[in-house]
């Protein structure tokens, strides 16, 4: 039997190894587009349907409370409390659930519960019962944001994460523009309660999509799951809650971004509910308010579309600061508008405010996706959701009281000025620290020279 020379055998072995390696590289090649990722298009569809349903729902609630039930301002003021308070109280319990249950399944069950409570709202005869059902529904919905952030981190490669974040923002902001218009059309032919059924149907469709992909999107490896389940079963909620906060404080950049974002949200919520009062005082035409709301939505969609084309977002502190400066300038501009100002001026101010809003939302969500470790994303997203909801509860009534005292236009100006002052403080601290460090170096140099 003839044997080839040794060098021929070596070459054949190398060729075989190269062929196997080439095949494995082809299999493991990361997807070029976000839509090529297994399971993500279904997740995105589920999210989009539920967001659109929620906007129909918000229109129905406003009409029901204000027009059908003729509710007092107290009831109207309790709606955001009923929606936000469960997020404040229960968001940080979500991490505990994620370690024990399949993420997709958990989100699907939450959608089913949300649909059930929404159907209950359809049959609700009184505002009090509606507020209770809203609170229960919001409690079921608490799991969505942390799971969504965790799944994006788990499924999406690093070079596509900015696209995932911006696509989610585009759906949310786009729905804010389109759905109120469609809801108004539906209300001309349908009862307001019917829009609640549309939301219930949207969440049931979302749940069906999620159940269909529960096997396609694994939460973790099976070996890891059993180990982590046993480990987390032994740890208390307090220890897990503490570890989440310690994780946040271990990333100075993320902590700075969170602080600036919360200041921005607080100032926005201060005056957000006062827009109707502002335009009531300067103009008898309600169309001015709709022009500004549309311009804000268009500005947010525009900046998110631009960010969607990028692969990576660097210098996050700069972008969050820029977003808050734009919002502050728009608020100062709104404080100066008069009845003689044209619609073009209102459009420019609304567009600037929208660009700032869209940039802020995208930056903070991208930071949650990229700065912490994989296992910390859900807990940090839960903390973000909890703190944001707390601001949503505290800021609007505080802003309403101050508006009564100082006036609505002064309140807009104060919000813009406070934002700029808060942004300038870190810069001043850095400049002072730099001067102190150079002074110490100079003293050390002089003493060594002596």
Automatic annotation (TrEMBL):
Ranges annotated as spanning the membrane: 42-68, 74-94, 106-123, 196-217, 244-271, 291-310, 317-337, 343-368, 380-402, 408-431
Organism in which the protein naturally occurs: Alkalicoccobacillus plakortidis
GO molecular function: transmembrane transporter activity
Predominant location category: membrane
Name listed for the protein in its UniProt record: MFS transporter
GO cellular component, one term: plasma membrane
InterPro entries according to UniProt: MFS, MFS_trans_sf
Membrane topology term: Multi-pass membrane protein
């Amino acid at each position: 039997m003839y044997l080839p020379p040794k060098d021929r055998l070596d070459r054949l072995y190398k060729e075989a190894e190269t062929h196997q390696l080439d095949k494995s590289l082809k299999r493991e090649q990361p997807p070029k587009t976000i839509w090529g990722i297994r399971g993500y298009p279904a997740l995105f569809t589920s999210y989009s349907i539920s967001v659109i349903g929620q906007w129909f729902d918000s229109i129905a609630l406003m009409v029901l409370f204000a027009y059908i039930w003729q509710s007092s301002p107290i009831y109207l003021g309790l709606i955001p409390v009923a929606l936000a308070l469960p997020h404040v109280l229960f968001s940080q319990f979500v991490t505990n659930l994620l370690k024990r249950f399949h993420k997709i399944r958990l989100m699907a069950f939450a959608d089913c519960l949300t649909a059930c409570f929404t159907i209950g709202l359809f049959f609700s005869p009184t505002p009090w019962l509606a507020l209770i059902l809203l609170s229960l529904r919001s409690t079921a919905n608490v799991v969505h944001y942390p799971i969504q952030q965790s799944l994006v981190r788990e499924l999406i490669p690093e070079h596509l994460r900015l696209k995932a974040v911006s696509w989610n923002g585009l759906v949310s902001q786009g729905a804010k523009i389109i759905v109120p218009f469609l809801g108004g059309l539906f209300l001309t032919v349908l009862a307001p309660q019917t829009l609640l059924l549309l939301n219930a149907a949207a969440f049931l469709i979302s749940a069906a999509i999620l159940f269909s992909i529960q096997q396609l999107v694994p939460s973790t490896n099976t070996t890891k799951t059993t180990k982590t389940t046993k480990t987390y079963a032994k740890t208390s909620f307090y220890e897990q809650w503490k570890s989440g906060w310690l994780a946040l404080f271990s990333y100075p950049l993320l902590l700075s971004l969170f602080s600036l974002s919360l200041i921005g949200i607080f100032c926005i919520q201060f005056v957000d509910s006062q827009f109707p009062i502002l335009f009531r005082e300067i103009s008898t035409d309600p169309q001015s308010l709709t022009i500004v709301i549309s311009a804000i939505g268009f500005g947010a969609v525009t900046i998110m579309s631009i960010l969607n084309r990028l692969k990576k977002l660097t210098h996050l502190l700069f972008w969050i600061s820029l977003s808050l400066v734009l919002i502050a300038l728009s608020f100062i501009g709104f404080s100066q508008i008069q009845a003689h100002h044209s619609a073009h001026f209102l459009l420019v101010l609304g567009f600037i405010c929208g660009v700032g809003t869209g940039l802020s939302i995208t930056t903070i969500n991208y930071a949650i996706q990229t700065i912490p470790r994989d296992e910390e994303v859900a807990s940090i997203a839960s903390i973000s959701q909890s703190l944001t909801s707390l601001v949503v509860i505290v800021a609007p009534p505080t802003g309403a009281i101050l508006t009564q005292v100082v006036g609505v236009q002064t309140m807009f100006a104060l919000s813009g000025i406070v934002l700029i002052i808060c942004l300038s403080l870190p810069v001043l601290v850095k400049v002072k620290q730099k001067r102190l460090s150079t002074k110490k170096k100079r003293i050390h140099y002089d003493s060594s020279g002596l």
